[in-house]
Amino acid sequence: MDYDRLKERYSKFLSKRDERRELVSFWDGDLPSKDLICLEAGMPNEKLFPIKAIDLHLVDQPFDDGDGDKVSITRYEQPAEMPIARAFQYSEVRGMLPMVSFCKRIVEMTNRPVYDNWDVLLSNGSSDSMFKVFETLCDESSTVLMEEFTFSPVVSNVTSTGASCVPLKMHLTTDPRDQGIDVEYMEQLLDNWHELEEYKRLNKPKLLYTIVTGQNPTGMTLSMQKRQQIYRLAQKHDLIIVEDDPYGYLTFPPYDPENPMKNVYTDTENPMSIDEYLQKRLIKSFLTLDTDARVIRLETFSKMYAPGLRLSFIVANKFIIDRLLNLSEITTRAPSGASQAIVYATVKAMAARETAYQDEQDRMFYGWIRWAMKLAGTYTHRRNVAFKALYETDAYKSHLFSVLEPSAGMFINVKINWPHAPPDDMRRSLDQLDTVLVKNGVKVVLGYKLAVDQSFSIDSSGFLRFTVAYASHDEQLIEGCHRIGNGIQEFLGY
Amino acid sequence: MDYDRLKERYSKFLSKRDERRELVSFWDGDLPSKDLICLEAGMPNEKLFPIKAIDLHLVDQPFDDGDGDKVSITRYEQPAEMPIARAFQYSEVRGMLPMVSFCKRIVEMTNRPVYDNWDVLLSNGSSDSMFKVFETLCDESSTVLMEEFTFSPVVSNVTSTGASCVPLKMHLTTDPRDQGIDVEYMEQLLDNWHELEEYKRLNKPKLLYTIVTGQNPTGMTLSMQKRQQIYRLAQKHDLIIVEDDPYGYLTFPPYDPENPMKNVYTDTENPMSIDEYLQKRLIKSFLTLDTDARVIRLETFSKMYAPGLRLSFIVANKFIIDRLLNLSEITTRAPSGASQAIVYATVKAMAARETAYQDEQDRMFYGWIRWAMKLAGTYTHRRNVAFKALYETDAYKSHLFSVLEPSAGMFINVKINWPHAPPDDMRRSLDQLDTVLVKNGVKVVLGYKLAVDQSFSIDSSGFLRFTVAYASHDEQLIEGCHRIGNGIQEFLGY
């Protein structure tokens, strides 16, 4: 689809605010020739910075305390494409080109879109990405569909544009074919939108926001079959799909209760190859189905490198990327060059070990993916530790709770098996349970707090979300899980 | 003024968009007790980051190639208040507290507000600060006053909220008492607003945006007397003053044509003391006059450390800071922790040399200000070099241009002395001059491109802006200035 066609096709999705966003610039974009002395922009010479080099001390493995590679960022030489003179200077708002190329390579190698005219924009963390996407696409006239339980701050992102959120029923099940968005519900909702009493004040939805893999909070992953069904619905009803995927690299193999510590990622006898990881363990993005250029994918370095970097990227068709870039120009401008240089120099160091690949871009990709695989192995280990600890509690053995086994990500959800029906006042019951849990020394998040619409989801919100990501060591995680079991047992009065 | 009074007083300034911005959170803000295992937030343990330490190699002086201090940021120990485990983690949206404290100390020591209930919010560079301020205060009903020549992207910031920009006449003069905003014009404009045909479609202005010191592009600085007059006008007409001050530390002593390279900052016989710099060379902010809490001040580390850090801060009354923080929560969240840690560790290293001061906070402040003084000395040197080079051209000696001598900052403006009246088509004439300058090998910015309203300012826009900040060495700057002179001479046909 050429640019003009994209523009023609997707302009109607733009918000009123986007329409009036015109950039005023005093640059004419001339490229400096060799002999031209450029005295235009208020850029301080790099020798006016108080810093001339940075050394990064890396680690080889998660939780490794030993010395790994040391890599330097110098004023002019290293990395050749992104030294301090560039990274600490004003730089391209879309991200420095070597970082943009690296992110594009990630997309090409893992989730190559089925159309050509796509692009990448770096941003300041997925929260910033979401803001920019909703600000560009939504206004008072917009309705956004999303999973009934979600990363709840996104609701603020949507409603602050004036738009409305509509929850989609989910199947909370361990069946990998069935978990996640209830596609039939979604189909009925869209097919019958104009007859629905409940939503009669709202326009028909134009966006679906979904956390596709290891969903927050439920840990559910949309199967490829469901992705295909949902994509067809998006085509039928002309929806843009905003696919948020912070956890996509952290997928879990099935848990084996007979061999709870089994971990295909770290099996020394039969080590997983990178290709196996890429082909079998990663779930393909909606981008790979996206014949219409209607998918906006959000990735982030927060979970794969470090959240404090505030570094993420957005994949979308070139027209939409241009509109998002336009917003970046007057808001954040480029993400931190320090963050970009730290990630880039780290990936270059990882690349240096990938001697099996000829091409530097390939080495960078595979070096980075090897790190992703190591993280996935660590998260799988923690999943194993947590499951084992939960399943050995008396509360579990007495069927007081079940575990909504996650297929990826950072979160595990414990579903309370209420002795009779769900409580009349779910919020109050969960708040009381929370008090007991805190008394027992463990803090989790209550299901109802993660619902887009608490009354819509009240019956299914009787769960607790906790993370395996933050504990300092296995023992702390085990103790936390035991306290969850004990707290539930105490609360339910057994 | 207590918080409720601030809220009552300043709520009317908030935009419609601010009003509907409600945060949805799943946190209850409980502080973890010692024995509580917190499994709430999706924060990766710091040992899941691929980096465990960073060494910074600093320089002692601008343009110094030698080795200065080396300072480390480690996983847990250094800096004690901001190691990697904190700086690379999700952190406080308002900025990490040690950085917030440092910024507050800067404000207290340089421009202590005359009221108590003020606060600081870190943001991602002054462009981001501006966006957040205008987004929070402006909508379709708002009118914003600003200098007729300004950092033109700010016009996009204002108009994208739906608000309108109204230019204020400036006095472009070297007289330090008279330069900058034409206060009489401003007074007439506000006093007679409702009778003005030209602006009858616009509401009365509620904001003044001004670059107070070393204004971009003019290099003008508002005298204290003018600041007092403008503040009284702001009181009379109930304006919020948005004071943008990226260049405030880079003030120039008067130029001495008899002794062009004289530089009070670097005079080895009579070195300037820090107190002299603070008392005599820095101009006091509007904050120091702000009995009503109506001033919002924007500072940035872009010019004082490095632009690529994307790190800045906003000073305002606590109510307004809360509203800005509310916007940060759903947009950028915290600025890059890597950027914050780099600045913080650098300042700690600078502090270690300030042994004359007992208090660590004082050492940090004075260490930083000593760096600011060195930068001011470098910029003064470059101003001297550029002036000398301009004044020795034949074009200057033939009165073909004059120099609008700047009192601070990065920019010098060369005013064309048109042989007769200003040209009928100023844009076209300047564009033609630009072509000649580029042919002569120098690129500058044309005055009309920096006007808020080109037709309003057309007669006074016959100038060229260039920067002393970016040249690699004095010789390049000298050559650039000579080319400007030669280009003007060729263009005017002498």
Description:
- Two copies of one chain form a homodimer.
- Chain A is α/β, with parallel strands linked by helices and 494 residues long.
- Chain A folds into two domains: 79-248 and 283-352, Aspartate Aminotransferase, domain 2, CATH 3.40.640.10; 378-492, Aspartate Aminotransferase, domain 1, CATH 3.90.1150.
- The first copy, chain A, is 36% helix and 15% strand.
- The first copy, chain A, is built from 15 helices and 17 strands.
- The first copy, chain A, has helices at residues 3-10, 16-19, 84-87, 97-111, 126-137, 153-160, 183-191, 224-237, 274-281, 318-330, 337-352, 360-391, 394-397, 426-439, 474-492, and strands at residues 37-38, 51-58, 70-74, 118-123, 143-147, 164-168, 170-171, 180-181, 207-211, 240-244, 295-300, 312-317, 401-404, 411-416, 442-443, 445-446, 463-467.
- In chain A, the strands form four sheets. A seven-stranded mixed β-sheet of chain A has the order 4-12-11-10-9-5-6, sandwiched between helices.
- In chain A, helix 7 (183-191) runs parallel beside helix 8 and helix 12 (360-391) runs parallel beside helix 15.
- The mean pLDDT of chain A is 95.
- Strand 15 (442-443) of chain A pairs parallel with strand 1 (37-38) of chain B.
CATH domain fold name of the largest domain in chain A = Aspartate Aminotransferase, domain 2
Low-confidence region ranges of chain A: none
Strand line-up across the major sheet of chain A:
4-12-11-10-9-5-6
Structural class of chain A: alpha/beta
Alpha-carbon Rg of chain A, integer: 24 Å
At CATH's second level, what is the architecture of the largest domain in chain A?
Answer: 3-Layer(aba) Sandwich
Distance between the termini of chain A: 63 Å
* The CATH class of the largest domain in chain A: Alpha Beta
Structure annotation, total helices of chain A: 15
